[in-house]
TrEMBL record, chain A:
This protein's record includes keyword Transmembrane: yes
Keywords: Cell membrane, Membrane, Transmembrane, Transmembrane helix
Annotated source species: Halomonas alkaliantarctica
Protein name: Fumarate reductase subunit C
Gene3D superfamilies hit by this protein: Fumarate reductase/succinate dehydrogenase, transmembrane subunit
Membrane-spanning parts: 69-91, 111-129
InterPro entries, A to Z: Fumarate_red_C (IPR003510), SQR/QFR_C/D (IPR034804)
Automatic annotation (TrEMBL), chain B:
Catalytic EC class: oxidoreductase
Note describing how the cofactor binds: Binds 1 [3Fe-4S] cluster.
Catalytic reaction list: a menaquinone + succinate = a menaquinol + fumarate
Limits of the 4Fe-4S ferredoxin-type domain: 151-181
Keywords per UniProt: 2Fe-2S, 3Fe-4S, 4Fe-4S, Iron, Iron-sulfur, Metal-binding, Oxidoreductase, Tricarboxylic acid cycle
EC number of this enzyme: 1.3.5.1
Family stated for the protein in its record: Belongs to the succinate dehydrogenase/fumarate reductase iron-sulfur protein family.
Record protein name field: Fumarate reductase iron-sulfur subunit
Organism this protein belongs to: Halomonas alkaliantarctica
Pathway the protein contributes to: Carbohydrate metabolism; tricarboxylic acid cycle; fumarate from succinate (bacterial route): step 1/1
Cofactor (UniProt): [3Fe-4S] cluster; [2Fe-2S] cluster; [4Fe-4S] cluster
Amino acid sequence: MDKSSSQRLPPLKRNWWLKHRFFKLYMLREATVLPLVFFTLCLIAGMVALLQGAESWQGWIAFMGSPIVLVLNLLALAASLFHAATFFVLFPRVMPLRIAGHSLPDQAIVAGQWAGVVAVALLFFWLFGRA
Amino acid sequence: MNTEQINAKNVSTKHISVKRYLPDSSAEPYWQQYELPVDDSTSLLDALNHIKEQLDSTLSYRWSCRMAICGSCGVMVNGIPKLGCKTFLRDYEGEIRIEPLSHFPVQRDLVVDMEIFLEHLAAVKPYLIDDNPVKAFDPQTPEPYQQSPEQLARYKQFANCINCGLCYSACPQFGLNPEFLGPAALTLAHRYNLDSRDHGKKQRMAELNRHEGVWSCTFVGFCSKVCPKHVDPAAAVNQGKVEAAKHTLIALFKG
Ligand code: SF4
Ligand code: FES
């Protein structure tokens, strides 16, 4: 049979992901980027404020302390942890690690990644906790 | 076995709704209900056979091995792609809705046109390619290809695919763009790329590295959930992305 003999269906509708719990979870994972964009914008604003001088820096600090911004940034933290959790589980499937011909168990790779997160967090608190 | 043990098999009556499509008599698909006796061991395929033999001989569906090996009995059960012979009605309470596999054109009742799937499989050259064999093949003294258990282990999981197409019905990217090579074809390509006896990676990479190749995958991951053979096509496709990226980089440096 030649190529044209097989029919093609019309593409899915935009709301395809509402059909199934699994797809909604996937969309949630993708949506974690939204609060993270907000957090990144906050950081950029902070750097601009720093360049502009003491007054706008104080303004930025006040802005960061406002309840709405705090809530949004907590949301961003939760979103990034959720994303990390799902990503870490996927990682060994995308990059299976082999040592001397034997594949490393998935759990070991996932645990290793979380150990990395804890290490970075500890380093962060050690650096900035003293200020 | 005494009668009590036989009775303990939980015989009951269940309703299943089947999406019918009979292009000769009606242009539109419609739902039809069947009522049938089931026990703990009744598979969905048994149920379809019962309907065909006892209730309604006009029902069309595919099957062959009834042991999860031929890959022909795939249908949607309550919206999820499943093998009919590996699905048991005892696991379903309430409504059971049977539809043809999603994202494929329906020919009749539960029978879909798999042509596009076969085209995609063929596109990735799913066979051993060895253009420069160490030794020329001599039919008088044929020499087998040797492979160690470690070399086999690298691709074995990806070689378990039975071409049932369930992963294509689970993949929204294939639903959105049927030209996407899709989970099984990309997995098959990866399986041959990982095979120590094969040297066809370069030829396959051209196919894989297209937008319709690995890059259309957004790692929804449902394909791996529905795969009846635990092939993990999502893993294979995304390992293919790593390979494709490496391939591009290497090509860049070679100029
Ligand atoms: S990868 Fe799994 S679901 Fe997809 S065709 Fe092969 S056996 Fe079926
Ligand atoms: S009948 Fe062969 S896989 Fe189900």
